Structures are given as structure tokens and as C-alpha cells.
């Protein structure tokens, strides 16, 4: 169809066209597998055992017949890991956010959202039909001003933020948000997708800021990043979890996660629990990667997390560098609009415990060439 071709031609002309790349044979420096757990022997073995016992799929949604022991065990372990009373699994981080936010806030309520929140948070806010106000990135003085002006007009107010922002790797000030949510009687919804396993001894954002969970806080996290698996979860009070089981459409009307996926994720959480030094070793890996990236003639952002973007600016230039690195066997994705603002294209490098000194030397040589 002509209109489709015109859209694709326009994207290519603006250096915004996206292609999937098979990573076999390439050294991947942009994965979210921060702790290298996706092929950890214990994780693989746990998944194998579950595959042999339960088969491949779960067979149905959680509310039909797709809820079995391994699902319940993973939820219990994640609740303990996050320091909350209860937890419920979702099919993905995107499904968790677009399913949970509309349950927590709806028409006649107010949502306050950081301007750099992940797309799934933005879409969850839109689907809620609540009134929405966006505050400048990490500008909590502006957020407080909005609350002073608007809070009295609404029965429910939901503050929404990432803990670790996925494109710059910077952290939300969860202490400031925690205090504001208490001061103004708001629900605080934290997307801890990139925080789980990487900060706060692996337990995420609240632990990083020495905060204890309390009833108005709802935590989302993913199994697909530092835990090396797939899927997501939401932790909170028992009442919140029961409400999600009864109201979250992306949970109710979706087949539950495969048992083998849950078993692998459960083993990953156990490994982090048993090896709290993994997060410190990740900090060391970040610093080693940072040393290599400092050779580039671009600004490198490092905020103490494994997401280390190299700001190139121009979309075409970022794409060109990515392609040249690909020719050297290095896979690092060029992130462009609309994922980031126009003129803020970057190479999104990530640190991982997977990288050896030889891998970093390979990257260094490729960058120099």
C-alpha cells in the first residue's frame, strides 16, 4: 500500500528507520542482561527441570488454569525480595504498566508523571483516562508546586516514576518522591525495571535510598533484565494485588508465563540473594566500560548504573557509528527519536558481568579503528 511505503521512506530519509539485527556472531554491548544470569548454569538447570515437569506453555490465564506452584513460589520470593506483603506476575513490563496504572487511577483522578518515564508508563497513564500532568525530569520542586495547587481537587492522586531511567541511566530521587507522596497522601508507583538487580544490593530503588515499603507504594519490576528471564511483576499490599487480579485486563485476559521461565527467574533471585557482592562487581564492570568509552570524542553519561549512553546528537551520525561497529563484530544500538528527543541520539552501552577483559579490549580496538 502506498501510504505504508511513504511512511517507511520518510523514516529512512530521517535516519529513524529501525531494523532488527540477528546478534549471533556479534559481541553484544547493549543487552539488559546486567548480571549475566540468562545462561547461568543454575538458571538453565532450573528451567530444564520445570520444562520436563510442566511442559512448555502454562495452558491458560492465571484465572482459568494457568496458575501453578512455580508461579506462586516466584511471587512469594519476589515479595520477600522487595520487602512487600504480596506480588503478582504479569506477561511483560509493558503489560504490567498498562494493566496496573488504569486500575490505580481512573476518570476523575490525577496522575503526575516524570517527563522521561518509559513509554509503557506513558501509555498506562493514557489508558487510565485520569487527568494527567507531566513534571520536568527529576524536578521535584515543580512536582510539589503542582501538588500544592491541584491536590485538593482530586480524591486519588498517583505519582509515577522510573527508578532508573532507561535511556540516561540516572536515578529518580525516591526519597523526595516518598516524602511528597506521604505529605500529600498520594499513591507512589515506581517502575523498578532497571533497578531490580542493579541497585540497592540488587533489591532495587527503595533499598538504594534506605526506604522501607509502606502501603501507598506500588512497585513494578521485570524478570527480563538483570534477572535474565522474561515477564514482570507488581509488588504491594495484599489488597492492591487482589485488586489487580480482579481488574487488570492485561493479567486477566492473557495466558500466564511459561513455568520454565518462572523457574529460571526464581533461581536468579536466589542467586542474587546469596551473592550480594554481585552488585558491587557490576559497579566495577561499569567503571571498566567507562574507561573504554572515554576514548570517544563524545559526552559519556555515567550515573552509577549499568546504562552508559554516549551522546552523539545527530541521528545519522549515531546510525553510522553503530553500523561501523557492527562491521567490527560489535553490536551496540543507536537510540533515536522517538525513544529519545530529536538531536539527542546516542549509542546506549550497558555494563554486564558477562564481559571479560578480552571483550573490552575488542571493543576498545573497534572504537579506535
SSE topology sketch:
Elements: H1 2-13, E1 27-28, H2 41-54, H3 69-82, E2 86-90, H4 93-104, E3 110-114, H5 119-128, E4 131-135, H6 140-150, E5 157-162, H7 174-183, E6 187-191, H8 205-208, E7 217-222, E8 232-236, H9 238-247, H10 249-252, H11 259-274, H12 277-293, E9 299-300, E10 307-313, H13 315-327, E11 330-331, E12 334-335, E13 345-350, H14 357-368
Parallel strand pairs: 1-11, 3-4, 3-5, 5-6, 6-7
Antiparallel strand pairs: 2-8, 7-8, 9-10, 10-13, 12-13
Helix pairs in contact: 2-11, 3-11, 4-5, 12-14
Explain what you see.
There is one protein chain. The N and C termini lie far apart (42 Å). The chain has helices at 2-13, 41-54, 69-82, 93-104, 119-128, 140-150, 174-183, 205-208, 238-247, 249-252, 259-274, 277-293, 315-327, 357-368, and strands at residues 27-28, 86-90, 110-114, 131-135, 157-162, 187-191, 217-222, 232-236, 299-300, 307-313, 330-331, 334-335, 345-350. It has 14 helices and 13 strands. It has 2 domains: 13-34 and 276-368, Aspartate Aminotransferase, domain 1; 41-274, Type I PLP-dependent aspartate aminotransferase-like (Major domain) (Aspartate Aminotransferase, domain 2), CATH 3.40.640. The chain is an alpha/beta fold and 369 residues long.
Amino acid at each position: 500500500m502506498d501510504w505504508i511505503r511513504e511512511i517507511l521512506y520518510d523514516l529512512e530519509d530521517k535516519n529513524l528507520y529501525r531494523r532488527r539485527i540477528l546478534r549471533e556472531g556479534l559481541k553484544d554491548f547493549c543487552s539488559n542482561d546486567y548480571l549475566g544470569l540468562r545462561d547461568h548454569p543454575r538458571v538453565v538447570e532450573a528451567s530444564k527441570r520445570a520444562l520436563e515437569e510442566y511442559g512448555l506453555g502454562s495452558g491458560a490465564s492465571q484465572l482459568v488454569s494457568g496458575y501453578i506452584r512455580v508461579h506462586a513460589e516466584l511471587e512469594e520470593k519476589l515479595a520477600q525480595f522487595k520487602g512487600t506483603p504480596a506480588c503478582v506476575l504479569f506477561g511483560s513490563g509493558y503489560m504490567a504498566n498498562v494493566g496496573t496504572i488504569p486500575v490505580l487511577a481512573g476518570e476523575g483522578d490525577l496522575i503526575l508523571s516524570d517527563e522521561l518515564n518509559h513509554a509503557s508508563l506513558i501509555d498506562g497513564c493514557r489508558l487510565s483516562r485520569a487527568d494527567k500532568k507531566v513534571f520536568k525530569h527529576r524536578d521535584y520542586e515543580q512536582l510539589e508546586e503542582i501538588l500544592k495547587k491541584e491536590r485538593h481537587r482530586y480524591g486519588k492522586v498517583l505519582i509515577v516514576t522510573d527508578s532508573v531511567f532507561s535511556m540516561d541511566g540516572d536515578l529518580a530521587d525516591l526519597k523526595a518522591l516518598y516524602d511528597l507522596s506521604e505529605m500529600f497522601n498520594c499513591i507512589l508507583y515506581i517502575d523498578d525495571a532497571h533497578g531490580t538487580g542493579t541497585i540497592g544490593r540488587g533489591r532495587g530503588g527503595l533499598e538504594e535510598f534506605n526506604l522501607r515499603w509502606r502501603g501507598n507504594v506500588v512497585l513494578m519490576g521485570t524478570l527480563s533484565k538483570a534477572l535474565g528471564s522474561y515477564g514482570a511483576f507488581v509488588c504491594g499490599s495484599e489488597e492492591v494485588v487482589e485488586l489487580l487480579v480482579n481488574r487488570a485486563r492485561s493479567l486477566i485476559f492473557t495466558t500466564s508465563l511459561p513455568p520454565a521461565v518462572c523457574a529460571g527467574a526464581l533461581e536468579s533471585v536466589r542467586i542474587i540473594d546469596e551473592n550480594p557482592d554481585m552488585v558491587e562487581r557490576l559497579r566495577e564492570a561499569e567503571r571498566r566500560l567507562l574507561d573504554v568509552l572515554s576514548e570517544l570524542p563524545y559526552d559519556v553519561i555515567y550515573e552509577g548504573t549499568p546504562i552508559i549512553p554516549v551522546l552523539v546528537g545527530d541521528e545519522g551520525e549515531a546510525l553510522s557509528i553503530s553500523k561501523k561497529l557492527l562491521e567490527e563484530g560489535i553490536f551496540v544500538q543507536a537510540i533515536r527519536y522517538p525513544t529519545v528527543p530529536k538531536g539527542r541520539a546516542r549509542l546506549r552501552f550497558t555494563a554486564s558481568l558477562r564481559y571479560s577483559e578480552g571483550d573490552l579490549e575488542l571493543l576498545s580496538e573497534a572504537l579506535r579503528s
